[in-house]
Amino acid sequence: MLRRLGHEAVEVRLPQHLDDLDALIMPGGESTTFGKLAVRWGLIDPIRRFAASGKPIWGTCAGLIFLAKDVGHDQPTLGLMDVRVVRNAFGRQIDSFITPIKVKGLDAPFRAVFIRAPIIAEVSPNVEVLAQLEDGTIVAARQGNLLGTSFHPELTNDTRMHELFLSMLAQPAR
Length: 174
Ligand code: GLN
Fold this sequence. Notes:
The structure is a single chain. Helix content is 19%, strand content 26%. By secondary structure, the chain is α/β, with parallel strands linked by helices. The strands form 3 sheets. A 5-stranded mixed sheet has the order 1-2-10-9-8. The chain is globular and about 40 Å long. The structure holds glutamine (GLN).
């Protein structure tokens, strides 16, 4: 998606891969595995420093869980975003679904893909809610240079969420 938008994208697996990056996306997957591998390969503090430098970080799904301060489980996370997430909040893998959602800053609904997704159950006042399901469930939020989404924008052809994230490169962290 980033390449389609004209940006260079590289994989980050080790701390040194963060050098010279302007922004970081942490994708979906399994957040407990992220935590274990991040601890093993010494990524936690380098990513925290990356965030503290004001560079944009976007966590989708497990990436959002990995960003969150409160995940309700004893698992290693970055603990950067002032949100409480609930993992697997819609049920099991088979309960995954796709639904259009309204996202603040986007002109038309976004087709959101939820795969055994977390929800954002609580946000601090410094966190801006960007998208909610019809029942009010928060599924996207921003805190300064941090963006979190419960769903998987990379699984659609719609580049608008990626553009929204890239626009954070130009905006100073709030
Ligand atoms: N269920 C996963 C977790 O709790 C997240 C799933 C996903 O990233 N699609 O970490």
